[in-house]
Every structure is written in structure tokens, then in C-alpha cells.
Write a structure and sequence with these properties.
The complex is a heterodimer of chains A (about 220) and B (about 325). Chain A is α+β, with helices and mostly antiparallel strands and about 220 residues long. Chain A is about 20% helix and about 40% strand. Chain A has 4 helices and 16 strands. In chain A, a hairpin with a 4-residue loop joins strand 6 and strand 7. The termini of chain A are far apart. Chain B is mostly beta strands and about 325 residues long. Chain B has 2 domains: about 15-175, Jelly Rolls (Sandwich), CATH 2.60.120; about 180-280, Immunoglobulins (Immunoglobulin-like, Sandwich). Chain B is about 15% helix and about 45% strand. Chain B contains 2 helices and 20 strands. Chain B has helices at about 1-5, 285-320; strands spanning about 25-30, 45-55, 65-75, 85-90, 95-105, 110-115, 120-125, 130-135, 145-160, 160-165, 170-175, 180-185, 190-195, 200-205, 215-220, 225-230, 235, 240-250, 255-260, 270-280. The longest helix of chain B is centred in the C-terminal third of the chain and has 38 residues, at about 285-320. The radius of gyration of chain B is 29 Å and the shape is elongated. The relative contact order of chain B is 0.15. Classes of the chains: A alpha+beta (about 220), B mainly beta (about 325). Chains A and B meet through helix 3 of A and helix 1, strand 4, strand 5, strand 6 and strand 9 of B.
């Protein structure tokens, strides 16, 4: 009788563990990609073409594809200031791995969103990255420049899901273009085209990044 | 490759004049004296054209002659107010100087980034700061013919400057040194240290090798009062592809401090900044006291458990014996 009871406990524990793993949100398990690689921008500057959930380069724990490059006279604070009329709420932080002429380092940004998290609403969300000590790169090809990722958040306080990186990239391109900034939508191939669903994280990125010249 | 794909590259020039015979910046154009006061008009935001410099046919950024900007400016800081502004300068619309100014109630921070002086950040309580900023122009900021130089102050929020004064010597210079001829590789995250305990500051000076290898002297600047073991300068007769070195310092202050490394008067005169977070020294008892207490508690608990289990076992044996 004792042995049978032990077996029952064991089976119950295994079932509970399996149910727990199945109920974990996709973000905790991690979104993965087969496209992770570095991109060079001249003079030793390089980045990974995705941002990461943690400060570890791991293709099984990426967040979103890099899809924006602001150049010429860009700077993290300046980009956020330009877009703050529409993107005004702070988001949760993610991580980018960057090489500013010789050494790899991490930058962390929560980015900005168009609305507060809720059970029924959605919002567009971007994050911008540059070496954290200076908040921008510089080289003679791009001037002062920073990178960004984009996506949409849905129903964040209830059944959260995340998608549409192209939609937010397009929205930012439109807003910058409307200000008169020279904007080239889907201009450069960043080797991160991805269309799949992993838990509540739906990738739909065409692999082309938008370049925006900041005067 | 990226520059070409972006349409940002400019064809290099065969007709370029002979490069300067020695590394170092040689001024080719200065902001005219009568235009210097006009810079003050952007102290509260806006753009002003400081003048136009002309370059001969075939001029381009590199590979034998490189153009750089020099800005000598005195910024009157709006003390007591909160603001975030960016002072920038561009040739032909291509920005080559970007200085961020953040004013807070008690202090101001002025930070800049460039390929000659590296990252610089100055936190000050002073009413004004004088900057001598130098940086390589963008590739597309160098064109044959007329090149306008414009100064802009973007006010991102609040109030940053009370005045802005451009000094003589601001303008355009040339050098034969490539932008990245020499560069420092240093820790990019803050080093942890304890007050009164020696700390090693490692660095690597890497060289691309476009110029004759004349060696370099690496000089350390440390906060006032810090003890530096040995000389503050280290001389390398030859650099090859690069050299590694380190300095040993003993912090005498606590909190966040910055150390500077520079290789002056050679090539692109690189510099680097290293952040150090210094904790106060703690007594042996305060650092080990808690762990000692925990260890003692664990030992006592283990002894009590062993004793209790021995007693229980004896009792079982006694009961079994009956």
C-alpha cells in the first residue's frame, strides 16, 4: 500500500511540473531565432541583429529584431524626445550587445510605448540602443547613430501577446517622415527576417531595417 | 561596405594635396572673427551658419588626408534649472560634433563623443565650462567646393545654457592620421575597488599600422589624492599591432570616480575613460561577523539535531530490548 501511494505522489509531482512548464508564458521560456548574427557598420562598430531577454548572447532567448537605425545627429535622449508626443510610457527593459570600436558591451533600454498596459488595449513599443556610456555611436560613415527594435504589445495585464514589429517600424518611419526627416523605409538588409509564432511572441519581421536621418 | 550600401561613401581623391608631413591637426580654416559672436544666438536653441570653407576639387575624407572639426567654446550653464540639450556642429549637414548638456538642480553634466578624444563626461558645479572639442568629419561632410559649417542647439527639455561663446581657433583642420590609427581598449563597465586597497587598471593600445611605428607614451590621470604605484606614464618604443599594459592605483576616496588614459602627440591622440566604484573599507568583524554568526548557529543546530537523533535511537533500542 505504501509503495502504491509513493508512486501516486511521484506521478502527481511529474504532472504538476509538466503543467507548470506548459503554463509558463513564452517570454519566460524564451523566443528563439536561427538568424542571430553580428552586423558591422564600419570602423570596428558592430551589433547583434536581435536584442536579448538577458545579458547573454543566446539565440534561444532573443526578444525582437533590430529594425531601425537613426543616424547623423542621433542620440538616445534625442530620439525619445522627438517621439515623445506619441510614445510616452516607459516599457520593460531588454538588452542589446554592441561593439563600439573594439569591445563588446551591453546596453539596456525599456523604450517607449504609445499607451499604458491594460487588459483589452494594445500599444506600439520601440526600444533604442547605443553604448551606455555615451548613448550614441560615432563613426565617419554614419555620424552619431543608434539602433532600435519595434513591436506591438496586446492585453499586457491579462492574456498578453506581442507581435507586429513591422507595424511599429512603419509607424515610426511615418512619424519621422512627417517631421521632414529623410526616411528610407525598409532600406538595409539586417539578416533577421522571421515569420513564426512562439507562445505569445509572434515574429513578423521582413529583415529590412529603416534608416532615418536625424538633422 | 555599409557606407557604400547607404550611399554615404564619397569617392577618394587622387588629386588630394600632399598630406601633412607629421601627425597632428593643422588648421586650414577658422571661423571668421566677425562670425564668432553669432554663435551666441543659439544659446536658447536654434541654428546658425558660422561660415563656409572651400575645398579644392577632388577633396574627400581620407584615405591620405583626413578633415576634422575643432570647436572651442565656453558654455554658460543654467545652474539651478533642469534641462537637457544637444549642441551640435555639422559640415554640409553631416554632424561631426555632438555635445550633450544636462543641467540639474545641483550640478551639470557635459558629455561628448568623438574619434580623437573618445568619450568624455564632465560633471560640474561651475557656472561655465570651456570645451576644446575635436573630431573627424563625416565622409559626406567633406566635399569639393563650398562647405557650410553650422552650429545647432537642440533643446530636448527645460533650460540648459545662459550663454554660448565660440572662441578663436574653432574651425576645420587636417591630419594624415587615420581616425582609428590608435585606439584604447579598456574595461567598459565600472571597476569595483575598496578604499585603501590596490587596484589594477588594465588597458590595451591597438594600432592599425598606417604610419611609421614611433611608439607612444600612455599617461594616466587619477583623481586627486589617489596613489599611483610607479610612474604615471608608460613608454612603448614600438607598438606593433598593439601593446598591453596596466597601472596600479590605490583609491583614497569613495564613490564613483573616473580615471583617464591618453596617448598625446601621436597619431589621432586617443584617450579613454575608466569608471571605478570605490567602496569604503570595512573592518574584518563587520564583513565576516554575519557569516561567522550564521556558521556558529548552523553548527549548534547540527549538534542539537545529532544529539536528538542519538537519543531517539537509544530510546528505540531500549524499547526493542524490552
Amino acid at each position: 500500500m505504501r509503495i502504491k501511494l509513493r508512486h501516486l505522489y511521484l506521478v502527481a509531482a511529474v504532472c504538476a511540473l509538466a503543467a507548470g512548464v506548459a503554463l509558463l508564458p513564452a517570454n519566460v521560456i524564451g523566443s528563439s531565432t536561427t538568424n542571430l548574427r553580428t552586423l558591422g557598420f564600419g570602423y570596428g562598430d558592430s551589433i547583434y541583429n536581435y536584442d536579448f531577454e538577458n545579458q547573454a548572447v543566446d539565440a534561444r532567448h532573443v526578444d525582437w529584431a533590430m529594425s531601425l537605425l537613426f543616424y547623423n545627429n542621433a542620440n538616445i535622449n534625442k530620439i525619445k524626445s522627438i517621439l515623445e508626443g506619441s510614445y510616452w510610457i516607459y516599457g520593460s527593459k531588454e538588452n542589446a550587445n554592441l561593439n563600439d570600436s573594439g569591445s563588446w558591451e551591453w546596453d539596456q533600454d525599456g523604450g517607449m510605448k504609445t499607451d499604458t498596459p491594460s487588459c483589452l488595449g494594445s500599444d506600439a513599443h520601440y526600444r533604442v540602443y547605443a553604448p551606455s556610456a555615451s548613448d550614441r555611436f560615432y563613426n565617419p560613415s554614419f555620424g552619431y547613430y543608434v539602433f532600435g527594435t519595434t513591436h506591438h504589445d496586446h492585453h499586457e495585464l491579462c492574456d498578453a501577446s506581442y507581435d507586429d514589429s513591422e507595424g511599429t517600424e512603419h509607424d515610426i518611419a511615418n512619424r519621422m517622415s512627417a517631421r521632414g526627416y529623410y526616411t528610407r523605409y525598409d532600406y538595409a538588409w539586417f539578416y533577421n527576417a522571421q515569420f513564426d509564432t512562439q507562445g505569445n511572441h509572434r515574429f513578423n519581421n521582413d529583415g529590412y531595417a529603416t534608416y532615418i536621418e536625424v538633422p | 561596405m555599409v557606407a557604400a550600401c547607404c550611399g554615404l561613401a564619397v569617392a577618394s581623391s587622387a588629386a588630394d594635396a600632399a598630406p601633412p608631413s607629421a601627425p597632428g591637426l593643422r588648421t586650414i580654416w577658422q571661423v571668421p572673427a566677425q562670425a564668432l559672436p553669432s554663435a551666441g544666438s543659439v544659446a536658447h536653441g536654434g541654428t546658425v551658419t558660422l561660415g563656409t570653407f572651400a575645398l579644392p576639387a577632388g577633396s574627400a575624407q581620407g584615405p591620405s588626408r583626413w578633415y576634422a572639426i575643432r570647436l572651442r567654446v565656453v558654455l554658460g550653464l543654467a545652474r539651478g534649472s533642469v534641462g537637457d540639450c544637444i549642441l551640435s556642429a555639422a559640415t554640409g549637414g553631416a554632424t561631426a560634433a555632438q555635445i550633450e548638456i544636462e543641467t540639474r538642480r545641483r550640478s551639470s553634466a557635459v558629455s561628448s563623443l568623438g574619434w580623437i578624444q573618445g568619450r568624455r563626461r564632465l560633471v560640474t558645479h561651475a557656472a561655465s565650462v570651456t570645451l576644446d572639442f575635436r573630431n573627424y568629419l563625416q565622409v559626406r561632410g567633406v566635399k569639393p567646393g563650398a562647405n557650410p559649417l553650422r552650429l545647432t542647439l537642440d533643446v530636448l527639455g527645460g533650460h540648459c545654457l545662459t550663454s554660448l561663446r565660440l572662441l578663436r581657433g574653432s574651425g576645420i583642420a587636417t591630419t594624415a592620421a587615420r581616425p582609428d590609427e590608435l585606439r584604447f581598449l579598456v574595461p567598459t563597465t565600472a571597476l569595483a575597488a575598496t578604499k585603501g586597497h590596490q587596484l589594477t587598471i588594465p588597458y590595451e593600445l591597438s594600432r592599425r599600422g598606417g604610419w611609421p611605428d614611433r611608439g607612444a607614451t600612455v599617461t594616466l590621470s587619477a583623481p586627486r589624492g589617489w596613489q599611483v604605484e610607479g610612474a604615471r606614464s608608460q613608454r612603448f618604443q614600438r607598438l606593433g599591432d598593439g601593446r598591453r599594459g596596466s597601472f596600479r592605483v590605490t583609491p583614497t576616496t569613495t564613490g564613483a570616480s573616473y580615471l583617464g588614459l591618453r596617448a598625446m602627440r601621436v597619431y589621432n591622440e586617443p584617450s579613454a575613460t575608466i569608471q571605478v566604484r570605490v567602496e569604503p573599507a570595512r573592518s574584518w568583524l563587520s564583513t565576516r561577523g554575519v557569516s561567522l554568526l550564521l556558521s556558529a548557529a548552523l553548527i549548534v543546530a547540527a549538534a542539537a539535531l545529532t544529539r536528538a537523533s542519538l537519543r531517539a535511537r537509544r530510546r528505540e533500542h531500549a524499547e526493542a530490548g524490552r
